[in-house]
Design goal:
Chain B: Its cofactor is heme b; heme; Cu(2+). The complex is a heterotrimer of chains A (817), B (699) and C (67). Chain A is of the alpha+beta class and 817 residues long. Chain A is built from 28 helices and 27 strands. Chain A starts with 10 loop residues before the first helix and ends with a helix. Among the domains of chain B are: 175 residues, Cytochrome c oxidase-like, subunit I domain (Cytochrome C Oxidase, Chain A, Up-down Bundle); 31 residues; 168 residues, Cytochrome c-like domain (Cytochrome Bc1 Complex, Chain D, domain 2), CATH 1.10.760.10. Chain C starts with a helix and ends with a helix. Helices cover 57% and strands 0% of the residues of chain C. Chain C is an all-alpha fold. The chains are: A alpha+beta (817), B mainly alpha (699), C mainly alpha (67). At the B-C interface, helix 5, helix 6, helix 7, helix 8 and strand 4 of B face helix 1 and helix 2 of C.
């Protein structure tokens, strides 16, 4: 290293300095604990560092140091990417390019800076069989071609190990970007038409040059009308056919009449009375408004798409005498599936294993796991919490209960997605504009028909809905940007209209108000060996992968401080719906619900004793009883904890005079407890998904307007039906799909912020509208009075549009964050 | 599917960097010399080849095409290969481009002092060199588009777009502005006359600034600024908008160079409006460049490269603001023809082009030679010398310009010019010419410091091998089946076809244009020049008189009082090329004809100070010694006639005899005044031309 | 001023070719990604190492590591 030659850049020395600095991780730069002897914070960092070093990829560290950021939130739990090597993946997510090559798109989580882009591209290039490749940083999108033989699973695992988790995006979330072409071309056309018209402003009016400029402007207007303005004509035509009124109609009428009149004047040789430049500006500004709006939507959609990107699970199916990975939609009814711990059940079926522990939280909202036995029905969407489990498919994926429910939700979403502001505005705008124009025509007809036409046209140009059309999109796209920075992704623009009408906020309980994982809130011990018992409980629960096990282990280890060893454990038996028992170091220990104690307790008075003791626990908590050889061991009050910030957030909403309701699939007592503790108006427990939907729909017919916040399959219907459906990243795909708003994390304070933001947006839009209306009124009056001509009108028009943009930005600035 | 390994051509970049460094010093040295000549006229040492009129085009050409040109090519070859992930299309073409371009510069350095000039600003080179420029430019274009074609990176980074736009537009501009009819190997006449020529010239002249000194440098900025700042450009989206809006707007701003001239009012106002519109995209670009350093302003303290670049971008912003302001008519009234414009262009050239180039060179040299820069301190010293030089230069020229502009327009309360004698306004600004000289000298010294620094850096270093790189080839597989597929997949073909279409379109239009009767309101009394006047006019062009004297009296009271009737467009219909000029170091000459006797002119040319005490004009005593060349006068008249000047057959056939006859007439007049034997000397031809100037309208 | 008969159409033609270039750029999805190209500029071409060799053992460790 001691050559006098140049180091690639000065910052290489900085890299070296970091390497020498023993207190931070050599790879990710996070601070190391004092006792750590390794120069890395974890094995993952060490691996990636060696990978980078071995390949001479130090450029990564140089770039990272420039950017000053690092991917530190690496999730080391690398998911299984077996699916990527399957035929099903190639069929569903790839396009065949040649016989041997495919093209596909991945979404990468965790891209932070230039260094990430560099590393990912390098890893891709170094991988066998990867062809043309393109990484889009802004959209976290990696598209590439690969050989049939290429090991994509390995590639994805490498990427994930380096901190870039691979996801696939559901179909249909791509937005074509044609608007940009139209906008650019129209910008050029409008600019050149303006050029051709400028001489008329600066004094030219007759002569061969005037003719040349005028005819060239005409030539440029043709593509503007035929191509640039086509969306307006098309929409106006659709509106006309369906007999409705929309905002594109005055545009279409204005453009057409300006075109016809100008062309007539052109033929007559009145070159200074052409309105081609106004038309150019009109179309350009209208398209700008639409494009700005679409960009906002696109941005919001790509943010949500990042959340939606996941990895479809392959189910293992017994076929042709062996276990084969098969994608869910190809499983046939009657086939046997094998599910490992953590797998999501892809379709409805019948359990064929002896027992199973399933979490139905996303399906029904129940916070506690459910114990099933052979022949029990297994619902799609539930998660296997136990060991490997087998089931027989009883429905195809499409026919599974939730697939059908999803179809219903789909139609609900479509129904409510219609842009109403413009429709409302158009209803009065068109007649008003037309009558003003006609008024001009009549007023000036006695003076001269030419003057009359000119006045009418001036009116049509000045009332151009540019400013009107810009006011709302500008305000909204500003809002989308702010929301995005605050961790709120507004998927549906309709929210801006519907949110202010909302009077009732409905929450799911589990996972929304509460954290969705159980906690011990109180405990009682009846043994002199609590250490040993704690360890025994942990071991027992662990052996059945009970979700409470982790909680017990954590809690007990902290409380007792000591690690107790268990010599042997045998004869473990799971009683579905009751609990688990087994022999620990020769002693029978059982853990289960209080209600199920009679199955374990040797004497009835033990049960009475435990029930009496449990009576002092707070109401609504779940109770876990532990027996040692049939005698009382310990009692735990278990509760799904309410998030710290929830109370404050709900109070904030309450101050907005909103009705706050909880609808939960959980037990009514548990729901009641939440209602008692929090500033909520009411709570209903035991709500099936259909019940939630029914509740919302029924109350909607009583003129209530809803914001529904939920996270599971069980909330899907209500989310779709509510005026504003809200969910958060980490929720189920279904909830993400139907929600109008997606929060980055389960942070209820964002809902209050959302209300604020929508209010500011409304204010900005109203100010913009008021401005444009004011402008219209004044300009129309002036043109009716014959004080301004079409040329002045054309100059005023862009100014009014710009001021609308300005006032919007100002309102947001004033409104603060 | 495989990763390809290849090497960039670093050698060609080194070549262009060296050309930049060397020609930069030469161009600036010439600039300093002519700056000295304005303060101290004797600095031309009485040598015809070193007069201001001949050296000024050499200075502008050397600085624009040699210094800035080679700088563009150096940066372009370096950045493009890396952005496109490909070696240049052909090493041979790269070298032809390099040596061809240097040859053009050398030939410019020889022909311009010899007085071979077309007189059109920034396009002074004669037609054989124009052809060579076209050839070399096309070769470079082929090489460049070939590289784009074989690129391994799908996306064309914004810098590439700026380079493409520059290459295409400069080609078109150069060809159209250089349309000229050759008379001999070293002489040609512009096919356009008068107002038309002026319009083409300034359409070109402005766009030369736009597409030679702005867009390619923006390309360099978008590549080297992020590199130097170690961070991405502030907003890539903004850079794309910057590019397209400049492209759609820039081409139109030319007429602002002709405010208050014979150009129709509406065209002037239009030029002004479009110049004002340009502020928006220009400032968008400036902000984008400066904010690239966001969060890293502290780096500015240590890093001379960033210093150079940030100041360069700041000057870009200042110039693009000042330019549109200067194109506002009321301000232009004051500033046009004065040193204010000189200040403005040097802010752009020294600040924007020069400093960006220096920043780039300091960044490139260590990378091209694999060794750290010899001295960062010297680079910082260079920066301060340069910056101080620019500030001194510009301040001196502002004051000088403002002083002169105000003096020209000044009336006393009785309605008389306060300074009727032009030379008074010259004497007033001589001190500032000295200060400007010092500023220029300081800037040049900075360049010398860089030369030393670079020499020290590379001394004893063998140029390292070409940089190795690897990339996956790019295939446009996504596009299938469309009608335009083959066209789209080949940007080269596309661009070539577009350019060909433009050229065909242009040529198709040129033919009727030449036939078109001029639309300039014709004045019946305006007649073509006599053969001798034509020869005298060519001497006027050869000596570069138009570099200091305008022939365009603006319709302002101060000017009509001083010079006479304002200039009408109809008076220039036979002026191939136009000689309106852009700067008045001396007074306007449009109405000089008949104002003084022949002897006055002779004495004045022999020794200006014999007539005007404070004059800073060089003595042109060789005009009294050298014989008039009448060998090709017939060819000249015939060429003019081909361009539509209505000479009758007789005049063409007897051109030489007619010229000799007129020369005798003037010679006799001079002899009567006491100076004999001037019949066959150049001075008579020049006097014939000067005495004719602006007189037709009075007939 | 007859020169306008050339200059104006010529400028229009230039504009049209700029429009064509814009269309080409759009068709080639040049505007699709407005962030990554700005980052990619910063990459220096380091000397390519033995980048195609894959270290199997390290991959194994990477897959199985835990923190």
């Amino acid at each position: 290293m001691n050559q006098p030659a140049l180091s690639p850049t000065p910052s290489l020395t900085e890299t070296l300095r970091v390497e020498d600095d023993s207190s931070v991780c050599k790879h990710c730069g996070s601070v190391l604990g004092a006792e750590q002897d390794s120069p890395f914070c974890c094995a993952g960092c060490e691996t990636v560092f060696h990978l980078i070093e071995a390949r001479g990829w130090q450029e990564f560290y140089r770039l990272r140091d420039q950017a000053g950021t690092m991917n530190q939130d690496r999730d080391l739990d690398i998911p299984s990417y077996a699916y990527l090597n399957s035929e099903a993946y190639r069929e569903q997510f790839c396009q065949e390019r040649t016989q041997q090559t495919y093209g596909t798109v991945w979404y990468l989580d965790g891209l932070h800076c230039a260094a990430c882009v560099w590393l990912v591209e390098k890893m891709m290039r170094a991988h066998e069989g990867i062809g043309v490749m393109d990484l889009n940083f802004g959209e976290s999108r990696l598209s590439f071609e690969f050989d049939r033989e290429s090991d994509l699973q390995k590639l994805a695992e490498q990427l994930a190990a380096a901190g870039y988790r691979v996801g696939l995006r559901p179909h249909g979330s791509e937005l074509p970007n044609e608007g940009l072409l139209r906008l650019g071309i129209c910008g050029a056309l409008a600019g050149n038409i303006m050029l051709m018209s400028l001489p008329f402003y600066t004094g030219l009016s007759q002569g061969p040059y005037a003719a040349m400029f005028a005819w060239m402007a005409f030539a440029l207007v043709l593509p503007l009308m035929g191509y640039g303005a086509r969306p307006f004509f098309a929409k106006a035509w659709v509106g006309l056919k369906s007999g409705g009124v929309n905002l594109d109609m005055p545009i279409a009428i204005g453009l057409t009449s300006a075109f016809v009149l100008s062309t007539v004047q052109l033929v007559l040789g009145n070159y200074h009375e052409l309105y081609f430049d106004s038309m150019g500006m009109l179309v350009f500004f209208l398209l700008t408004g639409r494009y700005v709006q679409r960009m906002g939507v696109r941005k919001a959609m790509s943010e949500t798409a990042k959340l939606l990107a996941g990895m479809p699970q392959l189910a293992e199916v017994w076929r042709n005498g062996r276990w084969m990975p098969v994608s869910a939609d190809q499983i046939l009814v009657g086939e046997t599936l094998r599910m490992r711990a953590g797998d999501v059940v892809p379709l409805d079926g019948i359990l064929t294993s002896e027992t199973a522990v399933l979490n139905l939280h996303v399906v029904t909202g129940e916070s506690h796991p459910v114990y099933l036995k052979r022949e029990d029905k297994v619902l799609a969407g539930s998660v296997n919490m136990g060991g490997t489990m087998r089931m027989k498919a009883s429905q195809t994926v499409e026919d599974s209960r939730f697939a059908r429910f999803q179809t219903l939700a789909d139609s609900l979403t479509r129904q409510k997605n219609r842009d109403q502001v413009f429709e409302r505005a158009a209803r009065w705008f068109l007649p008003a504009a037309l009558s003003a124009a006609l008024l001009g025509l009549f007023l000036w007809w006695p003076v001269s028909p030419g003057q009359a036409f000119s006045t009418a046209l001036t009116v049509l140009i000045v009332v151009c809905p540019c400013a009107l059309a810009l006011a709302v999109p500008t305000a909204r796209s500003l809002a989308l940007g702010r929301a995005s920075r605050a961790g709120i992704w507004i998927k549906s623009l309709r929210v801006f209209e519907t949110l202010p009408t909302v009077d009732t906020v409905v929450f799911d309980k589990t996972g929304v108000l509460t954290e969705g994982k159980p906690n011990i809130v109180e405990e009682k011990w009846f043994t002199d060996r609590p250490h040993w018992l704690s360890a025994a409980i942990c071991e027992l629960e662990s052996s059945v992968h009970h979700p409470l096990a982790g909680m017990f282990r954590e809690r007990l280890e902290v409380a007792k401080g000591l690690r107790q060893t268990i010599d042997h454990i045998e004869a473990v038996e799971v009683r579905p719906g009751i609990g688990v028992r087994g022999e620990v170091d020769g002693v029978r220990v059982s853990v289960g619900s209080l209600a199920g104690l009679d199955g374990f307790a040797s004497e009835p008075q033990v049960q009475d004793f435990m029930t009496r003791e449990a009576a002092s626990f707070p109401a609504g908590v779940g109770i876990v009883a532990v027996l040692i050889d049939g005698r009382p061991g310990a009692l735990f009050a278990v509760e799904d904890r309410v998030g710290d910030e929830v109370d404050g957030s709900l109070s904030a909403l309450k101050r907005r005079r909103l009705d706050l309701t909880v609808l939960s699939g959980d037990r009514p007592e548990a729901v009641q407890k939440v209602v008692d503790d929090l500033p909520l108006d009411r709570g209903l427990g035991g709500q099936m998904p259909e019940d939630k939907l029914r509740y919302v729909v029924a109350r909607q017919s009583e003129r209530n307007r809803f914001l529904m916040m939920g996270d599971g399959l069980n909330d899907m219907g209500a989310i779709a039906a509510a005026e504003v459906g809200v969910t958060y990243g980490g929720a189920t795909d279904a909830a993400l799909k139907f929600a109008d708003v997606v929060l980055r994390t389960r942070d209820l304070s964002r809902i209050d912020y959302l209300f604020d933001l929508v209010e500011t947006t409304g204010k900005a839009a109203r100010r913009g509208l008021a401005l444009s209306l004011g402008y219209n009124l004044i300009a129309v009056s002036l043109s009716l009075a014959g004080l301004i001509g079409p040329l002045t009108a054309a100059i005023l028009m862009p100014l009014s549009s710009l001021s609308v943009v300005g006032i919007s930005a100002w309102t947001f600035r004033e409104g603060g964050s | 599917m495989t990763v390809e390994r290849f090497r960039y051509d670093d050698d060609i970049v080194r070549k262009f960097v060296w050309a930049t460094v060397i020609w930069g010093m030469v161009g600036m040295l010439v600039g300093v010399i002519i700056a000295l000549q304005l303060a101290y006229w004797k600095a031309n040492l009485g040598i015809p080849y070193l007069t201001f009129g001949r050296l000024r085009p050499l200075h502008t050409n050397a600085v624009i095409f040699a210094f800035a040109g080679n700088s563009i090519f150096a940066g372009m070859y370096y950045a493009s290969q890396r952005l496109l992930k490909a070696r240049m299309y052909s090493d041979v073409l790269s070298r032809i481009h390099f040596w061809g371009w240097q040859l053009i510069i050398v030939s410019a350095a020889i022909t311009l002092p010899l007085g071979m000039t077309t007189s059109k600003e920034y396009a002074e080179l004669e037609w054989p060199i124009d052809l060579a420029i076209t050839l070399v430019w096309v070769i470079m274009a082929i090489n460049y588009f070939g590289t784009i074609m074989k690129r391994r990176e799908r996306h064309l980074y914004v810098a590439i777009w700026f380079f493409i736009a520059s290459i295409v537009t400069v080609a078109v501009l150069h060809i159209f502005n250089s349309l000229e009819l050759p008379v001999s190997m070293t002489k040609s006449y512009s096919v356009y006359a008068g107002v038309q020529d002026a319009l083409v010239q300034w359409w070109y002249g402005h766009n030369a600034v736009a597409f030679f000194l702005t867009t390619p440098f923006l390309g360099l900025m978008y590549y080297f600024m992020p590199k130097a700042a170690n961070g991405p450009i502030y907003s890539y989206r903004l850079s794309i908008i910057h590019f397209w809006s400049l492209i759609f707007l820039y081409i139109w701003a030319g007429p602002h160079h002709l405010l208050y001239t014979s150009l129709p009012d509406w065209a002037q106002t239009m030029g002004m409006l479009f110049s004002l519109m340009l502020i928006a995209p220009s400032w968008g670009g400036m902000i984008n460049g400066l904010l690239t350093l966001r969060g890293g302003w502290h780096k500015l303290r240590e890093d001379p490269i960033l210093k150079f670049m940030v100041v360069a971008i700041t000057f870009y912003g200042m110039s693009t603001f000042e330019g549109p302001m200067l194109s506002i008519k009321s301000l232009n009234k004051l500033s046009h023809y004065t040193d204010w414009i000189i200040s403005h262009v040097h802010g752009g050239a020294l600040g924007w082009n020069g400093f960006l180039t220096y920043g780039m060179i300091y960044w490139l040299i260590p990378r091209l030679y694999g060794r750290e820069l010899y001295s960062k301190k010297l680079a910082t010293a260079h920066f301060w010398m340069g910056l101080l030089g620019i500030l001194i230069y510009m301040l001196a020229m502002y004051i000088s310009g403002l002083t002169q502009g105000l003096m020209w327009l000044d009336f006393d309360k009785d309605g008389y010019l306060v300074y009727p004698n032009f030379v008074e306004t010259v004497a007033a600004i001589i001190p500032f010419y000295w200060i400007r000289f010092l500023g220029g000298l300081l800037y040049l010294s900075g360049a010398l410091v860089m030369f030393y620094n670079v020499m020290k850096t590379i001394s004893g270093v063998k140029a390292p091998a070409d940089t190795e790189a690897e990339a996956t080839p790019f295939r446009p597989t996504e596009l299938k089946g469309a009608f335009h597929y083959r066209l789209e997949a080949k940007p080269v073909l596309f661009t070539v076809l577009t350019t060909v279409a433009i050229l065909i379109g242009g040529i198709v239009e040129t033919i009727p244009m030449i036939a078109i009767e001029s639309n300039v309101p014709s004045i019946a009394s305006v007649k073509p020049y006599t053969p001798l006047e034509l020869v005298g006019r060519d001497i006027y062009i050869r000596e570069g008189c138009n570099n200091c004297h305008s022939q365009m009296i603006r319709p302002l009271r101060a000017e009509t009082e001083r010079y006479g009737e304002y200039s009408k467009s109809g008076e220039f219909v036979y002026d191939h090329p136009f000689l309106w000029g852009s700067k008045r170091t001396g007074p306007d000459l449009h109405r000089i004809g008949g104002k003084y006797p022949n002897l006055w002119h002779l004495r004045h040319m022999e020794d200006p100070r014999a007539i005007v005490n404070d004059s800073i004009m060089p003595a042109y005593d060789w005009l009294l010694r050298d014989k008039t060349n009448l060998r090709d006068v017939k060819a000249k008249v015939r060429a003019m006639s081909r361009l539509g000047v209505p000479y009758d057959k007789e005049t063409i056939e007897n051109a030489k005899a007619l010229a000799e006859a007129q020369a005798r007439e003037i010679g006799q007049n001079l002899a009567e005044s006491g100076v004999a034997d001037m019949d066959d000397k150049e001075i008579t031809a020049l006097i014939a031309y000067l005495q004719r100037l602006g007189t037709d309208i009075k007939k | 001023m007859g020169i306008l008969w050339i200059l104006v159409p010529l400028a229009l033609l230039l504009s049209a070719s700029a429009g064509g270039a814009y269309w080409w750029a759009w068709r080639n999805r040049q505007f699709e990604d407005m962030e990554t190209p700005a980052l990619r500029v910063l990459f220096e071409d380091a000397k390519p190492g033995n980048s195609l060799l894959v270290d199997e053992e390290k991959h194994e460790r990477m897959r199985n590591h835990d923190c």
